[in-house]
Amino acid sequence: MDLGNLGLFKLMSRKMGxxxxxxxxxxxxxxNADTPEYKSRDLKPFTFRDALTxxxxxxxxxxxxxHLAGTRGPGGIAKDQKVRDPYETAPxxxxxxxxxxxxxxxxxxxDYQTITNLYKxxxxxxxSAIRTGS
Length: 134
Description:
Flagellar basal body rod protein FlgB, 0% strand, 3 helices, Flag_bb_rod_N, cilium, elongated, mainly alpha
């Protein structure tokens, strides 16, 4: 059985890949904290909606006239998020704030550990189901 083909494991693998890439970007930001004219970078946020859109769109359909139409409308509600950067740029043009980068790096590590633990729990649950024959 290839766990990579199961939806949950595929989603967790994509999230772990994104977290790995983000850790690399944050490490580059920290390494260039004293480089003149260096602008800090970050990845586009990993969202559940984006993770599920791999060239297929699932649309709900009413199978009964008594079903409610819903409140979101077609395509759901998309909110544009503007990221406000409250920090100033240094006189040399560098806008890397080490404290901010370290907070982001810590959050990335915690998210990676959470996904790893979830992965372990799901594998244990599948092993348990196989052993009991249920």
